[in-house]
Amino acid sequence: DAGITQSPRHKVTETGTPVTLRCHQTENHRYMYWYRQDPGHGLRLIHYSYGVKDTDKGEVSDGYSVSRSKTEDFLLTLESATSSQTSVYFCAIRDREMGGYTFGSGTRLTVV
Amino acid sequence: GESVGLHLPTLSVQEGDNSIINCAYSNSASDYFIWYKQESGKGPQFIIDIRSNMDKRQGQRVTVLLNKTVKHLSLQIAATQPGDSAVYFCAESGTASKLTFGTGTRLQVTL
Q1: CA angle B92-B20-A39, nearest 5°?
Q2: Helix or strand run (H / E) with residue B51
Q3: B103 to chain A nearest CA, in Å?
Q4: Residues in B touching A100 (Cβ below 8 Å)
Q5: In angstroms, what is the C-alpha Rg of chain A?
Q6: Do residues B100 and B93 make contact, with C-beta atoms less than 8 angstroms apart?
Q7: Confidence tier at A75 by pLDDT (50, 70, 90)
Q8: With CB atoms counted within 10 Å of each terminal CB, which end of chain A scores lower, N or C?
Q9: Is the pLDDT of residue B97 over 70?
Q10: SS3 A94
Q11: How far apart are CA A21 and CA A8, in angstroms?
């Protein structure tokens, strides 16, 4: 997906454990986003970044933290995973030339 | 809060017919709208976008119409093909940085 790589693609973890998802881009875009997708809710914004060390909360940020220490990587951390965080997580970049947002392939996270 | 929604959760059309997917938005300050297509197991793919200073924009087999008076957005797909089967999302942005998505419409193309 146009220079965006998410890892891992799938993960199963236990309740209470920390989990970090990684988004890597190769195109030097300033804006990066983390969304979660659940049935009946569409995609909801968790956190986003508008530059290195510049991040802000989205509509469903509780239980999540993010870090962006370099332009190409945007990390999403679940400090203590809960079953309600079982979801598909998508990273996106904002491509000004395209006008829209380009999404990664997603990470399916299951919290048991 | 502000939200974007869709009128029809599932749309079934015959191959070759035109499809129309509708979307209502509630944020009158939104100035940028995008349609995405999502196939099973994949991330959303950009289809077409439109800014609030336009009411129509055409792409290859797709047209987006924007009616700001009633806050309504539609996606028209001409000569629908089996490969068009997917979930379609509208999204809106009132700022330069964040998108709000609707819940999606599933398009089923029958032969």
Answers
A1: 55
A2: strand B45-51
A3: 4
A4: 34, 36, 46, 49
A5: 13
A6: yes
A7: very high
A8: C
A9: no
A10: strand
A11: 7
d(Cα A101, Cα A35) in Å, to the nearest integer?
A: 12
Which residues of A make CB contacts under 8 Å with B?
A: 1, 31, 33, 35, 40-45, 48, 50, 58-59, 90, 92, 94, 98-106
Comparing B4 with B25, the larger pLDDT belongs to B25
Find out whether the peptide bond into A39 is cis, omega within 30 degrees of 0. Answer: no
Record the tokens describing residue B52, joined without a space: 């609030």
B9-37: pLDDT as tens digits: 899 999 999 999 999 988 888 889 999 99
Per the structure block, which two tokens stand in for B9? 């959760």
**The residue count for chain A:** 112
Residue A45 token pair: 């914004």
Work out the percent of chain B whose per-residue pLDDT is above 90. Answer: 69
Amino acid at position B58, single letter: Q
3-state secondary structure of B99: coil
- The answer to whether B98 contacts chain A (CB < 8 Å) is yes
C-alpha distances (whole Å) from B83 to each of A64, A106, B16, B63, B74 are 36, 21, 12, 17, 20
